[in-house]
Amino acid sequence: GDPIEIKSTKIRGIESNGMICSESELGIGDNHDGILVLEEDAPVGLAADSYFKIETDTQYEIGLTPNRADGMSHIGVARDLLCALKHQQLADQGEYVNWPSVDEFKIDSHDVKMNVAVKDPEKCPRYAGIAITGVNVAPSPTWLQNRLRSIDLKPINNVVDATNFVLHEIGQPLHAFDLSKIKNNKVMVQTLPGKTKFTSLDAVERELDQDDLIICNENEGMCIAGVFGGLEHGVSENTKDIFLESAYFNPVSIRKSAKRHGLNTDASYRFERGIDPDKVVYALKRAALLIQEVAGGSVASELIDLYPKKLEPFKTQLDLLNLNSVAGTSIEAGTVRNILNWLDIEITAEKDTVWQLQVPAYRVDVKREIDVIEEVLRIFGFNNIPLPEKINASLSYSTKPDREKLQNIVSDLLSNSGYSEIMANSLTKGEYVNMVPTDELNPKDSITMLNPLSSDLSVLRQTLLFSGLESIAHNLNRQESNLKIYEFGKGYAKKDGTYKESSLLSVLLTGSKADESWNTNQEEVSYYSIMGAVSSVLNRLGVSENRELKEKRNGVFDEGSELLIEGAKIAEIGKVKKEILEKTGIKQTVFFAELQWDIILEGMNNHSIAFQPMAKYPSVRRDFSLLLNSEISFSEIVEIANKAEGQLLKEVGLFDVYEGKGLPPGKKSYAVKFVLQDENATLNDNRIEQAMATILKQLEKKLGASLR
After folding, report:
1. What is the CATH number of domain 620-707?
2. Other Cβ atoms closer than 10 A to 157
3. Phi/psi of residue 349, each to 5°?
4. CATH no. for 314-383
């Protein structure tokens, strides 16, 4: 427990300079019910640590990277440390890691006949076990309790403590079952039907998945393999006989099961990273001997070892020229040979500078040549690589446009406009695409993961829409209702048998334009708010000419449009369908825009910045109130007006929309401004009248528009 400071204090008015403690307060046991009473023959004056046989110890916390499963034990650390000490000539070349001997292990009898079957060898390549009878389950001896407490493990009982000791000693998880709970001594390693109920050791009833690997008896599941034991089948104070299990489980299977059930145990932590399959039986024997030492009992069955297809050591190669190229120095072949030997990496063949290697099974992180190079340099010591006397450099050349620079420019623009950048996972739910079957988002085009971590991360996203909606839903649940976000990300799809990756920029708006304040109106964001953001981005990039806006309605938008340049779609903008928002837990309007970043940048390859003087001649504005059918969009007016008078017309703007009383059914009124300007002369009334007449004639002809 936490340290307790013993100091002078008053109890009922009388000063006390000491404290009478319980086992728990002294940190030597779990009993806190009363004062610890020593034996009558306890020698007065003897140091407490000597009397209680407490060893002075030093604890090191080692920050392992997730790929170094081989270092998740005391022997694993010692093995790696010895390599470095040998290279530094701080240890004899003949020294080796002293693995505890299991020579004394023996089968005492064959009284117990175990029937063990592995029905899914892909998820469980190796499974071993033995029966031990006549054990006396009790608190562990002091030395074992102290060893476990020194690494912050709470002692449970002598059998469980022995398995935990071996786990941390050599890195092999084990599990002990109460043999009396295994009907007919039948153990099956298999999966169970989905939604099967299972009560785990923490008394939580869990619903199993059809892919969870389960250790079963004849009737029911006893343990989620490699993850967590069952409540009714573990070792208790009434246990007399046990079945001890040691196995190698598929890391992917364990990781998925642990994630599904929200469990992270010492066993799953190791299994999901990969343990040494060659130490399964050794660990079983080591644990059996330790259990016999602290709990008694005898081995009463054959040692079962089901290993139908041996996991072969991984093979790779090392080219010494590549090693020296990466290192930036020349390392002698003899030094490399020694380091590989200390790392248990066997050289099976040599040809010139290329060595064929066999990597031990416990080094699951060494798969490629560069991994071997990293291992050699790690033991050699990065500090031992001399710094060069000169640095070779070359002038860099970047193609136009500079993608990273432009992305930073746009990020600064949006961030300065009050937007927050998000970063989301490229893996998402497969069900999202089924919500919006469109030409662009087809479930058949989804790229599905072969071994997804979970159903929430099963496909690569085609669009940034749903990651943005997830972010909005997350923030809305935390009372943040006014949101402006953007994301640079990738979209993935399989079109005509070809995998395609595209760079995208998404922008999402919801809530009010500004936070609530005494001097601002709570005006909701609109289509024009997000259209303004898109226009700002394109204008900043210089993509402002020849933009064509078309109405777009599909499975994503209730109201939307798409932007094109020379026929190529560069963006989609609109109001997200209410059905989609409801399925993602959002109850307020959301506007979404997605820009095709690759296409925009590709169009900028030929873009050049040219000087353009300020206009010498004034512009002229004309306002008209147009009566149109309700289904006609403003974008159609803009498109027709620009085609009718492309030379003088500089701007078309909408400043009022009216529908309702005083208008015929199915009609609406648009108040539109038209800005005209001639760059070479001042416009006269005749020229203005002629231009506006041309525009109005085309609007009447193509849209049935009339002046109010």
Report:
1. 3.30.70.380
2. 20
3. -160, 150
4. 3.30.56.10
Q: Cα(524)–Cα(323) distance, rounded to whole angstroms?
A: 61
Beta strand 304-306 with 174-178: parallel, antiparallel or unpaired?
A: unpaired
List beta partners, residue 578: none
Structure-token pair, residue 507: 């922008």
- Determine contact, residues 8/15, Cβ cutoff 8 Å: yes
Q: Which residues pair with 198 in a beta bridge?
A: 206
Phi-psi region of 203 (alpha: psi -120 to 50; beta: other; left: phi over 0): left
Q: What is the DSSP string of 297-339?
A: -EE-S--EEE-SS--PPEEEEEEHHHHHHHHTS---HHHHHHH
Residues 486, 477: Cα–Cα separation, whole Å: 19
Paired tokens of 513 = 């334009």
Q: Under a CB-based contact definition with an 8 Å cutoff, are residues 239 and 180 in contact?
A: yes
Tell me: the pLDDT tens digits for 568-603? 889 999 999 888 998 889 999 999 999 999 988 887
Classify the C-alpha dihedral 377-379-383-389 as positive or negative.
negative
Q: Which residues contact 431 (CB under 8 A, 6 or more apart)?
A: none
Q: Note the CATH number of domain 115-306.
A: 3.50.40.10
For residue 552, is it left (φ>0), alpha (ψ between -120 and 50) or beta?
beta
Q: Give CA separation, 338 vs 88, 313, 326, 332, 377, in Å.
A: 12, 20, 19, 10, 12
- Chain position carrying tokens 């963006």: 571
Q: Residue ranges per domain, the chain?
A: 115-306, 314-383, 403-603, 620-707
d(CA 133, CA 240): 6
Domain 403-603: which topology? BirA Bifunctional Protein; domain 2 (3.30.930)
The per-residue pLDDT for range 136-183, each reduced to its tens digit, is 999 999 899 989 988 889 999 999 999 999 999 999 999 999 999 999
